[in-house]
Amino acid sequence: MTPDLDDAIALAGRLGRERFAPRAAGYDRSGTFPFENYADLREHGLLALCVPEHLGGMGATYRQYMLVAAELGRYCGATTLSFNMHSVSVLWSAGFCDDLDMDPAMREEHERRRTEMYRDIVDNGTLYAQPFSEPGSKMRTGPQAWETTATPVDGGWLLNGRKHFASLSGAADVYTITCTEAVAGREPSYADTLFLGVRADSPGFSISGTWDTLGMRATVSRTLELHDVFVPTERQVMPRGIFAQMARRWPHMFMTLCPTYIGVAQAAFDFTVAYLRGEVPGTKGEPRRASSTKQLAVAEMRVKLDQAWAMFLRAITEARVDPPRDVRMRAFSTQYTVMELSNEICRLAIRTCGGGSISRDFPLERYYRDSRCGSLMLPWTAEICLERIGVDTLYEPGERDGVVEAGR
After folding, report:
1. For position 303, which CATH number holds?
2. Total domain count for the chain?
3. Which end of the chain is more exposed for a tag (fewer CB within 10 A), N or C?
4. pLDDT per position as a tens digit, 147-172
């Protein structure tokens, strides 16, 4: 970590403690987007966390972003999860793209387009979102052509389709849409994925449905409807073929949900310790922390938390383009471990603190609900992670024709 990024973690912690955490319960209860939190992120330059330094951003690498996001996750999971959807639009098109194969003309054009995109974030505080999931998605069974299609027309494309679970719906200025380019003479393919920036005020773009869910309520992840939405060529966030190449060669790109959930797990542990010590207003410490049962439970939580952190830190440190098989498998193992242990730690926190802790005056019940959502999120659900680990352990490359490769 550079001093500047150490400062970014400290800034995330200060904003989280002083502003995000006190607001979190209200946003959760009302199911409304945390606009105040995003005003703070914008004011303090964190929307440009992953924008290169020479363009006015903080220049965070993948590992640095993951550590800053984990700190934010301790204070408001929903804000951090939606902040991820903004940040990856920048992160993927910045350092990740630099590692991939492009011819000189393609790279020059990409540099020009992303420079305009980043300057818009730095100068105007433009907020991005990255909706991924689609109704009826087949991504559970491996990379498939997106149901959202982009038909080439003069000067760009016409987009048609739907994206659901679209975080920041109604809040983002630009939505970076994964879609399949309609190529004459051949069947739609994942290789034909385009990554296009759709402005929220585009004709034919609308938001539908409601968002009344178990957890992560303040992400406001409603459904995006696209009906003949024109996207000019200048809004191509990545060149043709690059998203599919990235998904294959930079698999850790799909691990960026992890920081939110390890942050929630840390928050649940921290609250439990404070609660048992009597440091939470309205509680008494000594009778609780003196119990050997409570002590053993806290120890169990600590072991699980340390396990999650150890795997998380190793995975984000060894992440790189074209990782060897063991590194790729460890990314799946880390995703599974963080998502499952986050909810397990929150469950233990409630059981350990006792009946009084389920009051909505305290954050544990929100942590528990938020943490339960992690294992369900595509493209790396818990089941997909286990499937990939099993297949990659038992089969060498090429030994089994037709083996699905989820998220690759």
Report:
1. 1.20.140.10
2. 3
3. N
4. 999 999 999 999 999 999 999 999 99
